[in-house]
Amino acid sequence: MSEIRNRIDFVYIFDVQDGNPNGDPDAGNLPRVDAETGMGLVTDVCLKRKVRNYVQIAKSGQLGNDILVKSKEISGEEVFINGEIRKTYEDLSIKLEKGKAPADKVPAGRTAMCKRFFDVRTFGAVLSTGPNAGQVRGAVQMTFARSKDMIVSEEHALTVCAARDEEKPYELQVGIQGRKATVPYGLYICHGFISANLARQTGFSEEDLALFFEALKNMFDVDRSAARGLMSAQKLIVFKHDSVLGNAPANKLFDLVKVEKICDGAPRSFSDYSVIIDKENVPSNVTVEELI
Question: Signal sequence: where (predicted)?
Fold first, then answer.
């Protein structure tokens, strides 16, 4: 495995058409929105879930690329984190004392969990429950994605034409039975940070980085749902510093990516926007690359 020796910042741009990119359970599963500005939101947790799902499918059964926080709908199995920690200590032949690992063995358990699970070394994890393998701060951090412009949440009535229960009146089981919320179109921008220092601690490697970027490129195509409509990765812009600590503030680099609406009226496709990178003002000790 190749060690990461450079700080990396990235801009990830994706869109949604006629779908709900991230429902808010506190608001009847309506698309998440900034109440003050009307801008749409997609949480970092939602995006990390899609990365996990992609790696779980693409690297199924591959040593070192297992996923700890599995989705049952993808894996078909129920996973309990404490059970996985316990299994790791069993593989290390470390005996638990009253259900917990001895304090001097916790670092070994944490290291082994990082080696086993892609998402642990990438995003980190709280492993201090149950048998206790400590805590891991992940090498990759992501912000909420925020839409470039205000979104409009539309609700659509859903009807059912087939009854289920023969013991109930047919008329009560057909007709309008629910509602579905969608965003006609929204372009979302997420910012990410990759720490070479934390990567060294968790074992997050150049190969892991390549897999992470592969997931960002392809994860919407393996996670289709009628509720999410058409979601697509549109841009992945990577700023690579020539040092571990970095050579420029991330916010200044992100400001070099200009996303502007170029249509009249409400945007309805990615072609209604322009994305321009001000490469002339990129610091000489930072390289920029468009992976999408």
Answer: none
